[in-house]
Amino acid sequence: MTVIFKKTKGLTDKPLTYCPGCTHGIIHRLVAEVLEELNVLDRSILIASVGCSVMSYDFFNCDSIQAAHGRAPAVATGVKRVRPDSIVFTYQGDGDLASIGTGEIVQAAHRGENITVIFVNNAIYGMTGGQMAPTTLPGQITTTSPYGRDVKTQGEPIKVSELMATIPGTYYVERVMTADPVSVRKAKTAIKKAFQNQVDGKGFSMVEVLSSCNIGWGLNPVDSLKYIKEDMASYFPLGVYKDKGKI
Amino acid sequence: MGKVLMKGNEAIAQAAISAGCEGFFGYPITPQNEVPEYMSKYLAKSGGVFVQAESEIAAINMVYGAAAAGARVMTSSSSPGIALKQEGISYCAGAQLPIVIVSVSRGGPGLGSILPSQGDYNQATRGGGNGDYRVIVLAPNGVQEATDMVRHAFRLADTYRIPVMVMADGIIGQMMEPVEIDTTPIPKAANLWAATGKGNRDHLNVVNSMHLDSVELEDHNILLNNKYLEIVKNEVEYEKFLSDDADVLIVAYGTPSRIVKSAIKTLREEGIKAGLFRPKTLVPYPYDALHEASKNVKFVLCAELSMGQMLVDVKLAVNGIVPVHFYGRTGGIIFEPSEIVNAVKSHLGGK
């Protein structure tokens, strides 16, 4: 019998704690496969953040450091500066990166830290029970925008990739999604590039992944994937926002 | 090396370099600016890393990351900046990271002033971070002791895997004194727990302060507390000056303790047997030694550049066996020896 697919060595055997239907698991697998394929698992250090992925240190088969809410890019900076040969990456959600941690992510990029950031945008605070996030779509109902996000008082959703692309220090920024097999494959290509850049010493790379929260959104998993594709991707257009390697 | 004349902040930075500091992460705030300035100039030359962070919050989190990755690192700041670092200090304590924090304290609350103060005693000894944790706090009385204590702080941090704060008041930071900085290498702990990348290890290292299981977290808190009890047993330090035959015991720490010494000499010349008790470790506090030293005095006078913060610990130590009085100045005003002399006399006169 020929083995045509097996679990990546980049993940541990611990069962994921994510809700059924959530695409965190897919994104974990993509990152883990990339670390394995680039042969950097043994020198990788994950900076776990606060949110649904708070226990990601249990799932990735590499050394990890758990950071305070929003501070992962600062923690990553400390690690990378004293261990420049390590492959250092943060795995952050939208509440962590785009709200409480805006200062840290912008400044780490501004310094051009040679790290990789995986930014999982599911437009909601999933872990704390579905509150409004900085990336919650206009009119979207959450537990703290029960009448739908009112952009007049709650602001327009923040477009992180567009923002990060304006920072001179960023090397590579791309937005992808995990809505169907094709987009998942494209997401992996982007993630691989973001890690390859670090291996090559190119500088700050970030991949924003549009992800689902079927529980927080009140949708079934199938409709959630449709929501990513139709609603999220139309407000947050996919694509490469910055690639210094192509200038 | 021999004695050289150095500004306190620069001497503190050089002492850290001599202790083998591998990384410094800081943010400008008066009156500690010469620490990061000196580090930016000299740390890289000795193989270390200097990063000017975007905020005190980022700086302490860089320290958290670098220490978690096994490096010997420090940060420095002053009062409002230390307030911002408290979140990160709690995480460092929870994750048992050996780090050094230098606090060159100034006047408060709020923006307060940039003049020296001891209004951050509670901030240093009680902390503002969440949870059941302790930080070792050392309080030098001058530039020489500040350099010795910075080196000692790295030793303690390694020994106990705990954050150690050196609380230097703004006077120490800004004044110049002759100093001889010890250059003896300080062996670094193996840090086998650090997240360095798995390499050939047969297990993963995870640096973490989260324990969702209640039994696990209680066990962790007991472990932290047992470590603190060990520190209490081994690391209490204090100085006694003319206290053995004293009728009046004055308790002071940091630079003001030197002003108190002048006052004690004057009082002695006038026939009043006064003595000094100076805690060198604010955490662990020398409760037992102070209790012992206060047994045969008429009263204890606690003298601070605050409205009375260490006073609580002095009262805990004395535990009611003699009266405890207080004399303090704040706002950046430093008491004169004569003020202490008068305070002692007024309490004696009242008897």
Describe, in plain words, how this protein is organized in 3D.
- The complex is a heterodimer of chains A (247) and B (351).
- Chain A is of the alpha/beta class.
- Chain A has helices at residues 24-37, 72-82, 94-100, 102-110, 151-154, 160-165, 181-199, 214-217, 221-235, and strands spanning 44-48, 63-66, 87-93, 116-121, 124-125, 131-132, 170-177, 204-210, 239-243.
- With 351 residues, chain B is an alpha/beta fold.
- Chain B has 2 domains: 4-235, Rossmann fold (3-Layer(aba) Sandwich); 238-349, Rossmann fold (3-Layer(aba) Sandwich).
- Chain B contains 12 helices and 15 strands.
- The mean pLDDT of chain B is 97.
- The chains are: A alpha/beta (247), B alpha/beta (351).
- At the A-B interface, strand 1, strand 2, helix 2 and helix 4 of A face helix 3, helix 4 and strand 9 of B.
- Strand 2 (63-66) of chain A pairs parallel with strand 9 of chain B.
Question: In a few lines, what is going on in this structure?
Answer:
The complex is a heterodimer of chains A (247) and B (351). Chain A has 247 residues and is of the alpha/beta class. Chain A has nine helices and nine strands.
Architecture blueprint of SSEs:
The complex is a heterodimer of chains A (247) and B (351).
Chain A: H1 24-37, E1 44-48, E2 63-66, H2 72-82, E3 87-93, H3 94-100, H4 102-110, E4 116-121, E5 124-125, E6 131-132, H5 151-154, H6 160-165, E7 170-177, H7 181-199, E8 204-210, H8 214-217, H9 221-235, E9 239-243
Parallel strand pairs in A: 1-2, 1-3, 3-4, 4-8, 7-8
Antiparallel strand pairs in A: 5-6, 7-9
Helix pairs in contact in A: 1-7, 2-4, 3-4
Chain B: E1 4-7, H1 8-18, E2 23-26, H2 34-42, E3 49-52, H3 56-68, E4 73-77, H4 79-94, E5 99-105, H5 121-125, E6 136-138, H6 143-160, E7 164-169, H7 170-174, E8 176-179, E9 206-207, H8 214-235, E10 238-241, E11 248-251, H9 256-269, E12 274-279, E13 281-283, H10 287-293, E14 299-304, H11 310-318, E15 324-328, H12 337-349
Parallel strand pairs in B: 2-3, 2-4, 4-5, 5-7, 6-7, 11-12, 11-14, 14-15
Antiparallel strand pairs in B: 1-8, 6-13, 10-12
Helix pairs in contact in B: 1-2, 1-6, 3-4, 9-12, 10-11
